[in-house]
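Subject: for your reference before the review

Hello V.,

The reviewers asked for a structural picture of the protein, and I figured it would be easier to keep everything in one thread rather than splitting it across files. Below is the amino acid sequence we used in the manuscript, unchanged from the supplementary table.
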Amino acid sequence: MVKYIPLFGFLVSGLLYNLQVIGQKNGPLYTAPLGIEAYTFRNSFSKNPNATLDTIQAMGFTEMEGSPGRIPPSEFKRMCDLRGIRIPAMGVGYDQLVRTPDSVAELAKRMGATYVMCAWVPHGAVFNLDNARKAVEDFNQAGKVLKNKGLVFCYHAHGYEFQPYGNGTLLDYIIENTNPDYVSFEMDIFWIHFGGGNPVALLKQYGNRWKLMHLKDLRKGAVRNPTGLTSPENDVPLGTGELDIPAILKEANQIGILHFFIEDESNQPNIQVPESIIYLKSLTLP
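And here is what came back from the structure prediction:
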């Protein structure tokens, strides 16, 4: 029977079956739990969290990177637990991370998260060396607090860090000057590519400094720049844009990334997310 979820009005049945791909002789390329970044459903979470979680569950997601918003964290975790959705990672703002790392750690523990992610460093029109130096200092300090609480801090690079510096970029500066015992990284492949970086090359270069990954794709022909900002219409279903998803996943598997989160910043996640799921399930080992 065809099933529709009123919140989004999209077809669910037929998207979540075990896809039998012709020629899948060597097994699937993507074998990690199916994860979603909660920001994908930001518009519906603010209106009806329960219905949104129902939709996420119906799509087949078993992991989520997110934060409880205005919902008490223990209640949000309970809502996710009821639907078989784990929260291995949660996001936090830079100021909160720097000012109150102990409270951030407490929140993460209540959510059942292992990883704490920060996705934006405050800066002016252009990210500069002073911004990078401050981020390094703040990340090392906050990361140490989280490490002592049994958590892993990850900085989510956003593309603006690709300003040139020395023989590389300010992203290289941040990675090379943060303490690997306290600071790890989440690769958002869209923003890395958009800012001018090469996701596969950076995975190879920095190996297990990368612990988490956002899966998303950039519209073919979109103008790229190191601002960390672009129109939502440039976010397209996986496999339809510019990024070489199979090559990225292959290298991510090599270095041992365990948690991947589809993130769709478009205004039509109800259409694009199911397409991305089907694409991921269609990928096979070479």
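For the response letter, the relevant points are probably these. Residues 213 and 260 are 5 Å apart (CA to CA). The chain has a mean pLDDT of 92.

Happy to draft the paragraph if you're swamped.

O.
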